[in-house]
Amino acid sequence: MYARAGDEIVVRGTTAGVVTRDGEVVGVHHRDGSPPYDVRWAEDGRVTLYFPGPDAYVRHLTGEPLSVDTGADVPSAPVTPQASHDHVRTE
User: Fold this and answer.
1) Is 23 exposed, middle or buried, given 0-12, 13-18 or 19+ CB atoms closer than 10 A?
2) pLDDT tens for residues 15-73?
3) CA distance 59 to 20
4) C-alpha angle 4-2-50 in degrees, rounded to nearest 5
5) Which end of the chain is more exposed for a tag (fewer CB within 10 A), N or C?
6) Positive/negative CA dihedral, 54, 50, 44, 58
7) By C-alpha distance, which of 42, 43, 37, 53 is closest to 88?
8) In this structure, are strands 47-50 and 56-59 parallel, antiparallel, or unpaired?
9) Which tens digits make up the pLDDT trace of 23-32?
10) What's the rounded Cα separation, in Å, for the pair 48 and 21?
C-alpha cells in the first residue's frame, strides 16, 4: 500500500453493523509512501497515526503517478503526541 498527502484512506467494515471509515492522508512518514500515515478522519476531524490493515485501501485523488523513492525516511510534517497518547496531531 502506498499513499501521499491528499489521498483518501477507506476502511471497509468486515462484519455486519461495522461502519466504514474514511479519512484524508495528511502526513506520510516514508518517502516511498508506505505506512504509517497521519489521517484526518471524516467522522470527527481527529488526526491519528494509522497503520492500515487488510480491510483498508487508498483512493488516489490526484492524476499524478505515485513515484516510489527508496531514499531515507523523512516525515512530511512534525508529529506531536497529545496527552492521551492515542493519536497524534500535525502542527
Assistant:
1) buried
2) 777 768 999 999 999 999 999 999 999 999 999 999 999 889 999 987 666 554 444 44
3) 14
4) 75
5) C
6) negative
7) 37
8) unpaired
9) 999 999 999 9
10) 13
Measured at the alpha carbon of residue 72, what is the angle toward residues 68 and 28, in degrees to the nearest 5? 60
Residue pair 71/41 in contact by the 8 Å Cβ criterion: no
Question: Which among 23, 45, 59 has a CA at the least distance from the CA of 89?
Answer: 45
Alpha carbon dihedral 59, 60, 66, 70, in 10-degree steps, equals -40
Q: Which residues contact 70 (CB under 8 A, 6 or more apart)?
A: 31, 32
Nearest CA-CA partner of 26 in 50, 49, 6, 53: 6
Closest CA to 87 of 46, 53, 51: 46
